[in-house]
TrEMBL record:
The keyword Signal applies. Keywords: Signal. Pfam families: TctC. Belongs to the UPF0065 (bug) family. It comes from Achromobacter denitrificans (Alcaligenes denitrificans). Residues 1-26 form the signal peptide. This is Tripartite tricarboxylate transporter substrate binding protein. SUPFAM superfamilies: Periplasmic binding protein-like II.
Amino acid sequence: MFIKRVTGALAAIAAAMSLAPATASADAAFPDRPIRFIVPFTAGGITDNVARTVGARAAELLGQPIIIENRAGAGGNIGAEYAANSKPDGYTIFLGTQGTQVTNPLIYNTGSRPDKALTAVQGLTAIPNIVVVNESRPYDTLDKLIAYAKANPGKLNTSSAGAGTGTHLASELFQSIVGVKFSHIPFKGSAPSITALIGGQVDLSFDYPVSTEAFIKSGKIRALAVTGETRLPTFPDLPTLAELGYPGATSISWMGVFVPAGTPEPVAAKLEKAFAQAIDDPQIASRLIGFGGVPLKKNSADFNAFVREESIKWGNVVKEANVKLD
């Protein structure tokens, strides 16, 4: 019996040792076939555009095609769930966002946590909101808006692209930090939200540059501030909330590359390097700026830590504002 046990143990060790070189060889050869890039939203939107833009350059650097696969639905949860359950071999990667990785788990009751099963590899872009108001309103500066809101609590209506979206949560954070109260009116997307703002049905909004830029430049709405850490290259004269005295209200929506947990470290490192080099490319960085953001230069360690910090920050906002889905 003792001999049999020893023989069995040695066989197991030998089998494990025989697999190790094969695994190492596979990691070294990565990638040797196309990579699927799961985008949890429909084609043609900003997330899709970012994935296609950066993915095309990363594919050149990796020497293999990166195929965009749109799996939209449930605010990004369907795509996140699919990616989380994919084989952790580097051949399925995911475009994670502030929504899929941080806020969705706080406001959706899906019974699963794909965000926990995905690991951050490399940041891609950070997109702030712009505080915009109807051009006919009397508050043409942020200080005047705040003064009016404090004198008329609850009277001002703020629109969003939907309950729980970045356009909604940025407003809730602002209200909490500044000490004002708006009445929230959710719409099904940024387009109807901004249309209502232009028409005067609502007073203000916290929306993305891609949704507001044309209307700001045409004078149909007025921009008061940007919620990001730095000024936007497309609006260099527009101050940040921090510059105006409200650093705690700073917020961004972000995107990055994630992989299923358990992806071999050498494989994840190759993906990290390729996508980091992609957003460093001046042409790619210029296109990201055109989408209303700036490159988010956070490597795997920094990006994972950032996601944890964001979870705490937005968890407090969701709880305090009692954010619920439409």
